[in-house]
Design a protein that fits this description.
two-stranded antiparallel sheet; Rossmann fold; single chain; Helicase, Ruva Protein, domain 3; 10 helices
Amino acid sequence: MPAPPPQGLALKKPLWHPDPAVTVLEAIQRSTEFLARKGVESPRLQAELLLAHVLQLPRLKLYLQFDRVLTPAETDQLREAVRRRGRREPIQYITGCAAFCGRDLRVTPHVLIPRPETEQLAELGWTRLVAMPPPRLALDVGTGSGCLAIALVEHCPDTRCLALDASPEALQVARENVTAAGLTDRIELLLSHKLEAVPPQPRFDLIISNPPYIPSAEIPALQPEVRDHEPRLALDGGPDGLDAFRWLAPEARSRVRPSGLLLVECGDGQADAVAALLRQHNWIVTGIHPDYTQRPRFVEARPG
């Protein structure tokens, strides 16, 4: 008889036993139980999404294949994906994909995962652009995955966009997304710290940005998926979260056309402070727009 483990030493519970045959339904159930123990929100949905990724199927088609037996390779791939999610790695980084404005974009830990709120920012941007006479020129400051630039030009004929980021790794991800979207002739990518690499001419019809705006002291309290995995450069807005707006307000003012607009996303409770910063640099604030939760989230301004 084997010796019992030392007192106080708990045996590590496996994700699931290496059964010779694991069906789709069994894999979902076991993955769900594992993720629930790890504190992952919506564990059943997360398990289904991971399995759908492994099997390269739409998630709902899993329900038509509950009795399908996974191959050993599929089982191993799912185990690793579920373990990663159990360590609170975002599912978008595990699958390498995030949805934004109807398009699947490549994402890596070098870029912020696009949020639904930023889809609202994109919609505000293209709504304003289409009302302007063509040809139109937009500037996306801090492009990350390229999500805003791609959404703007896809929804606005006769529009070109210059998309900036301070991270070479982020620009590489954006480049892959722009290429996959077939928009290399309409979106130019530029490595730039602030707006330093942006030429003074031509000026832009729209300057849009989702800058880092989380106060530094609040980052340790964020969910592990954000705190431990998303790029700090895209999150940390300095002591009060407003550092990016302080340089963007004056620098964008000299790059926008007299008839142009500035649109920015900001954090919860920051809209009034961002509006005040803009007014200090001769912007006329024309709107503060709410997000899906009715919190003031987007500030719109035109040059004064």
